[in-house]
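A sample follows:
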Amino acid sequence: MKDDVNQTDWYLTVGDWVTGDYAKLTRTSDFMMSHLKAFRKVSGDSRWDKVIDNTYHIICTVKSSNKK
């Protein structure tokens, strides 16, 4: 959570090693929903719900933009 999640907009970052504008990036290949749900269950950290919801939102946005 601390190193791999944007704590303002609640999405997975590329990694904690990225700096500058690149730190605002995400990549869909990291969207493993079952893992995010497992992190939520094991940690008990409700912030994972925000990450899960926002990740679904990003997936839907990408999917709908590909229909054009």
Remarks:
- The chain is about 45% helix and 0% strand.
